Amino acid sequence: MSLQKWALDNAHTNIHFKAKHLMITTVTGSFAGFEGSVETEGEDFTTGKFSFSADVNTVTTGSEDRDNHLKSDDFFNAEQFPKLTFESTAVKNIDGDEFELEGNMTIRDVTQPITLKVEIGGVAKDPWGNLKAGFSFKGKLNRKDFGLKFHVVNEAGNLLVSDEIKLEGEVQLAAVEAAVEA
Q1: What is the per-residue pLDDT across 30-50, written as a single tens digit (0 to 9) for each?
Q2: H or E segment at 71?
Q3: Going by fewer Cβ within 10 Å, which terminus of the chain is more open, N or C?
Q4: Is the pTM of this model over 0.85?
Q5: Which CATH number do you get for residue 27?
Q6: How does strand 131-142 pair with strand 110-125?
Q7: Count of structural domains within the chain
Q8: 132: Cβ–Cβ under 8 A, 6 or more apart, which residues?
């Protein structure tokens, strides 16, 4: 069996987080700076070891003021904790192309387990002969579990920002190296 290494194809990858604002609308954000890799046995993603990191200073939500607030100590504290990371611990096939990706998310040096629902899109060669793989994922986490402590309640008793944060993305990987194990 050969070990296949994959890298995120950033031009074809979108990773987002969503939070409720005033519990009546949803604000979507992302990180412009991120990187990731996967190691699999051949093209079998159930054997995958997934690694991801994002540069917190590149958070973007469409509002410069909100982005600056997210970088502050109320949320990510980008000055002291400039990266968030995810390292997988297990991949479980649920049904056909549907999987659960378990791993450890680290934000503000706090590590918590999370589970992502993943749908494998497949593996294909692009027009230049490069091997690519794609998948979609969804998950959620409680921001307070990671020390994102901002807590304001409006006069109606609603949280200004929800504790639950939804994660979702479309990911494309590019094969970068295959080695035959002896």
Answers
A1: 999 999 999 999 888 989 999
A2: helix 64-71
A3: C
A4: yes
A5: 2.40.128.110
A6: antiparallel
A7: 1
A8: 9, 123, 124, 125, 126, 172, 173, 174, 175
